[in-house]
Amino acid sequence: MKQPSGINERRLSAYSTAAAALIGIPLQADAFIVYQDIDPDLVVLSNDTLFLDIDGDGIDDIQFWIESQAGVITSASGGVFSYTYRFAYASALNANRIFGMPATSEGFSFNSAYNFTSGDLIGGSTLPLFANKARLSSHVVLNSIPFYSGGPWNGVDNGLMGVRFNIDGNQHFAWIRLSVAATGSSMTISELAWDNQTDVGGITAGLTASIAGIDGSAPNIWGVGNTVIIEDISPSAIVQLFNIQGQAIPFERQDGARIQLQVAAAEPGNYIVRIQEDGAVYTKQLFLTSM
């Protein structure tokens, strides 16, 4: 759903919901991925500014805005020329960073924010970041004739911007679902997700998986070596295993009094077990070794 702006400055206090398609129950405090479906969408129009607080801690993390102006220029010879320009920007705030690097186009130099593909890793130590503003789209008209229209996000629909931001001095990563209209006339933010663990090292672009807590009626799940053991579920239950980046991990399932998942091709570390049974969904994090 989209909502027109109509005001000069707005703030989003982040709200957290589980990804219903994957988890289906409320997000708990021990989640790795915090997903937010922003409804209605946030729409930035000409001369609007939006401050986005990704994690809802009261500190703005990133700013989006569109600079727009129209007027006339009088040359030294007395000629009059009309002009219109519109620039769409994003900028990380408070020592945060946007993933991207400097670029040039049509003689213009600017910082270019990456448009990640769903499934890309946002994080690690190899991707460049920058602190200054990123020009997403540019549109210039002289005497009613388009002079320049372009930019790395110009006309992009449902792109994925990557951000590294700080919580209490610790680094976290986020993706933001962003659309920029052709000619930069508007920007739309429709969803985002961020990791709430300090040792994850990145987030998968487009991933909406969350880890939900388990109450006393849930199955009993634990790990021994490279094996996941599950009690108190039926053989018809659907079981999945993910690493902390949200990638599905293959396993060999053995049904019996206890269901066992034998994992071979994976590194020792933290994993997420997801169980779907009789309309309920349970998830749990555990540590596996001896792969």
Structure characterization notes:
The protein is mainly beta. Helix content is 0%, strand content 54%. The protein is built from no helices and 22 strands. The strands form five sheets. Strands 2, 6, 7, 9, 12, 13 and 14 form a seven-stranded antiparallel sheet that branches. The chain is elongated.
The number of distinct β-strands equals: 22
Which stretches are poorly predicted, pLDDT < 50 over at least 5 residues? 1-31, 210-216
How far the N terminus sits from the C terminus, by CA atoms, comes to 45 Å
Content of β-strand: over 45%
Mean pLDDT over the full residue set:
80
* Number of helices in the DSSP assignment: 0
Rg computed from alpha carbons, rounded to a whole number of angstroms: 23 Å
Quick summary:
By secondary structure, the protein is an all-beta fold. Helix content is 0%, strand content 54%.
